[in-house]
Amino acid sequence: MEEIGRQLASKWDKTAALLSHPRIAPHIPPTRLFTEANLRSMLAAHGMVVVKPVKGAGGHGVIKVTRSGSGYAHTYYAKTKHFAAFNDMYRSLDRMRKGRRYLIQKGIRLATIQGRPVDYRVKYVKENGVWQIRAIVGRWAKPGLFVTNLCRGGQLLSGSEGIRRSFSASAVAGKKRKMRELTRLGTQVLEVRFPGLGQLGFDYGIDNSGKLWIFEVNTRPQ
Description:
222 residues; alpha+beta; six-stranded antiparallel beta sheet; globular
């Protein structure tokens, strides 16, 4: 029997737990809580970041922020606004978050299919006390969007098809094996910190160089 298990909304708490493990930490993009100083330093270091609510799902409230020679820009769904100065961009972002706690994550340049980013969801479920991988799927962003969520028009692919079309057929087995390994390891870490979990959705991205990243872990995977 499938166990619903404990719900855990805070992305920050789950990220902090995963960062404590030396084999998982290198696969988590640098992440900070949203403050003006953190945003300024993260943009200086990375050039592109993603800001997202500490609690939220479905890509809602997820904003891409970039710094370039001509200033700053933020993109929410398909709408991009440009700013000459950091302070103007920050004020605009601050209004958009409506007082909610946000976090900032280094932006990862995902491998694409036809120029559209693709990422992955591994669904891991506990049945009769035993964890099992239920699915590894790819999510291909709708044209013009950087979020891949299906509720935002993203297209579902098998995990194998996503990897094959954005890399090569020879990459499929190794990338899926690594996702399974990180999922099992990550679940062990999370279960110790948050007993009572019953189902998890690990969100992975693969960047242009082939490195695997864990973006977040959901305790109520769709």
